[in-house]
Amino acid sequence: MTGDVLAPMTEDEEFAEFANAHAERLRTTAFMLCRDWHLAQDLTQTALTKLFLSWRRAVLADNLTAYAQKILLRTFLDHRRRRSSSETVHAVLHEPAYRESPELRLTMLDALGRLPARDRAIIILRYFEDLSVEQVADALEVPAGVVKSQTRRSLVKLRELLAADQLTLFAV
């Protein structure tokens, strides 16, 4: 019997494995932030490129997935600050059909799109990514109190934007 020993993975292989496992979730998060599948793909690619360039430091993070999400969030916010981010997309690609109430999901995404970028990021990170107030504050580099107050204001704004029959989204 020959003792085949598996060679340890190279850094490039480690990154490729991580990227393959997490790219779709990052892209979905990016879509919820920007509401454009093409831009979401670009943001995800940019975030993964930045992650690759800092891979040696990134693998030392306590939570590599959160580290990647933070890079994605910063990439999105940086994009929003640039003048080119005000371009209008004319051909809208619809997200895949969802089994549970696609109309409700589209209504919610439309309402989220009307929030300012940072407020939208806070809501998505808190309620779609299920991060704690402290994790969101860390990702956005703001005090936890800002996350709490902006969450409260954003939820009020979302309630105003949503039709009366859509309020079930906020029922707990």
**Helix amount:** 55-70%
* Separation of the first and last Cα atoms: 59 Å
Number of domains: 2
CATH top level of the largest domain is: Mainly Alpha
Q: Write the H/E string, N to C.
A: HHHHHHHH
The fraction of residues assigned to DSSP E strands is: under 5%
- Topology, number of strands: 0
Task: Please characterize this protein's 3D structure.
This protein has helices spanning 11-34, 37-53, 55-58, 64-81, 102-113, 117-128, 133-140, 144-161. With 172 residues, the chain is an all-alpha fold. The chain folds into two domains: 8-93, Rna Polymerase Sigma Factor, Chain: A, CATH 1.10.1740; 95-172, Arc Repressor Mutant, subunit A, CATH 1.10.10.10.
Defining traits:
172 residues, globular, 66% helix, Rna Polymerase Sigma Factor, Chain: A, Arc Repressor Mutant, subunit A, mainly alpha, 2 domains
Q: Which helices and strands occur, and which strands form pairs?
A:
Blueprint: H1 11-34, H2 37-53, H3 55-58, H4 64-81, H5 102-113, H6 117-128, H7 133-140, H8 144-161
